Amino acid sequence: MTTILIVDDEYLIADVLSFALEDEGYLTVTAGSGQRALSILEREKPQLIITDYMMPGMNGIEFAEAVRAHKSLHSVPVLLMSGAQAHLGLARPDLFVQVFDKPFDIHMVVETVKSLLKPDEA
Length: 122
Known about the structure:
The chain is built from five helices and five strands; from the N terminus they run E-H-E-H-E-H-E-H-E-H. It is of the alpha/beta class. The protein has a five-stranded parallel β-sheet with strand order 2-1-3-4-5, sandwiched between helices. Helix 3 (about 60-70) links the parallel strand 3 (about 50) and strand 4 (about 80). The chain is globular and about 30 Å long. It starts with a strand and ends in a 6-residue tail after the last helix.
């Protein structure tokens, strides 16, 4: 089953994303910080990551840089979601395949995820 890692310190947002993606047949794992997400990357080996920008300890760009430096996960697609800092993510196409402004359209996020992952992996 395809695993998606959702990294957001706002648990309501993580839950909404998780429920919507699970309804589409994906397995989701959530983390409330970049540090926590890094600690579960090796165990979960997600096929896609959705991260917030503003989080405690490590922002979304720092987290994505750590993912890109990881030898077995450097090519995993990473989506960024941000309220006021989306422009910072847009300036880093080397890190993010897509950047969404908060508030986001959940249907657009789901469709983007589906387009990035092969249909037979869901």
